[in-house]
Amino acid sequence: MISRDDCARRDGEDALAPLRDQFMLPEGVIYVDGNSLGALPRATPARVAAAVRQEWGDGLIRSWNDAGWITLPQRVGDRIGALVGARPGECVAADSTSVNLYKVLSAASRIVRADSPSRRVIVSERQNFPTDLYIAEGLCRDLGWSLELLEPAAIVARLSQGRGADVAVVMLTQVNYRTGALHDMAAMTALAHAAGALAVWDLAHSAGALPVDLNGAGADFAIGCGYKFLNGGPGAPAFVWAHPRHAGRFWQPLSGWMGHAAPFTFRPGYEPADGIGRFLCGTPAVLSLTALDCGVDTLHAADALGGMVALREKSVALTETFIALVDERCAALGFAVASPRDARMRGSQVSLTHAANSASTDGRSHGYAIVQALIERGVIGDFRAGAPADAHGPALPDILRFGFTPLYLRFVDVYDAVERLVRLMETGEYREARFNKRSAVT
Predict the structure, then answer these.
(1) Which is more confident, 302 or 252?
(2) What value does the mean pLDDT take over residues 144-164?
(3) What are 357-385's pLDDT values in tens digits?
(4) What is the pLDDT of residues 168-191, one digit of tens each?
(5) Cβ distance 192 to 199 under 8 Å?
(6) Distance spanning both ends of the chain, measured CA to CA
(7) Is the sign of the CA dihedral 179, 411, 417, 322 positive or negative?
(8) Torsion of CA 244, 248, 249, 251, to 10 degrees
(9) Which residue blocks in 330-410 are alpha helix, DSSP H?
């Protein structure tokens, strides 16, 4: 049995514990939703205020040069790149994850159409994040290509034994948003390449949560989110990376002035910048990039303490503790772990299902209501709805998601979160009608 004293002892021995002081966390709240929106760094309000008052207010347009606004996408991109195995000059911060995915899929399609025009299929995972699938659907519709959605094992089979001759791109999210299942990036990229396809990776749930090595894995393109584990704030710019072997070959469809080789010559006719700079499009979002830079600071504060490797070790320890406590205390209440139990196959989140036919329910799923009632008790996670069976695979259950950010979560937070969940189920208050009223964001 794991006690709260055991967890307190582990917090006392945690070399990363001082990193929590970087964040403004509400008193009494256990925040296990950093995989949706990272917590606010203490430095962010003052830094953004300075950008508004001094750089914009006093510097005015001069700050594009004097404060370095114009190079923010490259500078922040390089700092993110250091967390995901990119070399300097290979990564930029700009636009949203969805827009960047459209850019890289379009760029990849141009390369494939030039080299292997008979390849006209994008393969992805059925449980991939919907916006990724929507973007791929739209591109396939424009190109006359097709999108195949498969379970992970079926993707491996599809690419093996000569069955991938028509596959142009394999598009995967490294950590699944529903279950937290972790793909082996190097192995899947090698499999795609062996089949003659390009590998595009979404790092939304892995950048800032675990060590990533894009160059080491030989990936082709990658995009990722700035407001989850990178703590950049709501709507923070995303980032985009291309392997250097593609740097001079790809064209992306959004040929805006910031991606021009010489944007301030103001001449007609588009000439793409060298390398990753051609992934830029419009004017940089200076205030958002400033906030994102503060978020990235919180990750680099761990560099002297073991960096992403140390953060990953703590993440695994936190999730293992949570799983053990759920097994001990919540199995009889209808909960089961939906995430891989092998930490090597799991990101920095644990998802639970709640059985509709358990003794603790009235015969229907209460996942959404349980999450809402738990939030009222000061434990902030989130809910993701299931889906019925379809041509691509079996039915998906409702899940309760809990993200574990090692920068600010403590072992006692894990213990207390499970304790509050147990008490909530014992009282049955989640059955109150108010907890079933659906909000726009779940």
Answers:
(1) 302
(2) 94
(3) 444 444 557 999 999 999 999 999 999 99
(4) 999 999 999 999 999 999 999 999
(5) yes
(6) 33
(7) positive
(8) 110
(9) 367-376
Q: Which residue has the tokens 């514990």?
A: 17
User: Do 199 and 223 meet the contact criterion of CB atoms below 8 Å apart?
Assistant: no
Q: What secondary structure letter does DSSP report for 436?
A: G
Q: Where are the beta strands (DSSP E) in 94-191?
A: 121-125, 146-150, 167-173
Place of tokens 């007609």: 268
Q: Which H, E and C letters describe 202-216, residue by residue?
A: ECCCCCCCCCCCHHH
Report the length, in residues, of the chain.
442
**Residue given tokens 């937290």 in the structure block:** 180
Task: Round to whole Å and give the CA distance between 70 and 421.
Answer: 48
What's the pLDDT at 387? 84
Mean pLDDT taken over the chain: 95
Averaged over 268-286, what is the pLDDT?
A: 95
Cα–Cα distance measured from residue 292 to residue 234, given in angstroms and rounded to the nearest whole number: 10
How many whole angstroms separate alpha carbon 348 and alpha carbon 351? 10
pLDDT number for residue 358: 47
pLDDT level of residue 356 (50, 70, 90 thresholds)? low
Between CA 281 and CA 387 the distance in angstroms is 36
Write out the DSSP string of 84-113: TTPPTTSEEE-S-HHHHHHHHHHHHHHHHH
Tokens linked to 116: 């292997």
pLDDT at 32 over 90: yes
> What is the rounded distance in angstroms from the CA atom of residue 376 to the CA atom of residue 416?
14
Is this prediction's pTM over 0.90? yes
Catalytic residues: 129, 202, 227-228, 401
CA gap 338, 358 in Å, rounded: 16
Contact 370, 402 (CB under 8 A): no
